[in-house]
Amino acid sequence: QALPNVVILATGGTIAGAGASAINSATYAAAKVGVDKLIAGLPELAKVANVRGEQVFQVASESLTDDNLLTLAKRVSALAKQSDIDGIVITHGTDTLEETAFFLTLTVHTAKPIVVVGSMRPGTALSADGALNLYNAVNVAASKDAMGKGVLVTMNDEIQSGRDVSKSINIKTEAFKSQWGPLGMIVEGKNYWFRAPVKRHTMQSEFDIDTITALPPVEIAMGYEGVLSTAIDALGKSGIKALVHGGTGNGSVANRIVPNLQKVRADGVVVIRSSRVPDGFVLRNAEQPDDKYDWVVAHDLRPQKARILAMVAMTKTSDTKELQRIFWEY
Ligand SMILES: NC(=O)C[C@H](N)C(=O)O
């Protein structure tokens, strides 16, 4: 039986990193090893799929731009349309992996598996995690049972939803968590599924990367004890289309900056109320009267994920009722 065809799009990150010695698990240079060398270093892949690589970028993921996101998503979409391609893997730095995975799940119209993968240790380190993570990613991308589940992330033997997952620890290999739990696990190249996403993604998304040419500017301001309005005032005047407030607790906002956020909204910028607390979700009209202020709440999305959805949604609408619907549905 013919093996499935899987393309690996490489963007850099620690999975392509190299350190000076085997004990360097945290001190190393990201984005050093090319995709062909990554594939050549993992001969086990050839038993799972016909794999070929494309080097899209070679950067640490904290330096990726919104333009990079567009370029990558358009390439994924074009490949997904090819009848001779069964699945796509994207190797990526872990720092912003969750944002790219969410962006792809919102904008690429395909049922074919798309898997984003990274590593916490460079390949030169003792107990490097990249090889198994990549092997698992190719296995999932080559599997029919991974179709139609949205963009997936394979880290630490788990299959996570690209929408839900976040980097939650910055020094261990079990770095990616979702408060709603992984979708499944991969053990010795076999997928074990336990749940599936219910939020709209890929095929059911009203957004399509093939028709998106630019993303509107959206910025984030954090809430904290002692917060002043400096960042909010400056961002409000900077030409952005939306401001995500990463508030405290249940998206609470310090009373002294509420008027500043109201001013930002009055000046035409959409205000999105999220929380800096990693888990849980923000309720509408609790903590702040969102209906009265015409603010949007970010549901369970962390500020950086809320920013991604806001950018995508605002390629279509600036209507706050519509935006709130989108934040409930995706
Ligand atoms: N573990 C990693 O991949 C971290 C790295 N800074 C990156 O995001 O590219």
Protein topology:
Layout: E1 5-12, H1 35-40, E2 50-59, H2 66-80, E3 87-91, H3 97-107, E4 114-117, H4 130-141, E5 152-155, E6 158-161, E7 166-167, E8 176-177, E9 184-187, E10 190-193, E11 218-222, H5 230-236, E12 242-247, H6 258-266, E13 270-275, H7 290-293, E14 296-297, H8 303-313, H9 320-329
Parallel strand pairs: 1-2, 1-3, 3-4, 4-5, 11-12, 12-13, 13-14
Antiparallel strand pairs: 5-6, 6-9, 7-8, 9-10
The protein binds asparagine (ASN).
Ions, cofactors, ligands: which are bound? Answer: asparagine
Number of domains: 2
Please give the number of β-strands.
14
CATH class of the largest domain, please? Alpha Beta
- The name of the CATH superfamily of the largest domain reads L-asparaginase, N-terminal domain
CATH-derived architecture of the largest domain: 3-Layer(aba) Sandwich
Query: Strand fraction band?
Result: 15-25%
Mean pLDDT: 98
Going across the biggest sheet, name each strand in turn.
2-1-3-4-5-6-9-10
Organism: Variovorax guangxiensis
Domain Asparaginase/glutaminase C-terminal: 218-327
Protein name: Asparaginase
GO molecular function, one term: asparaginase activity
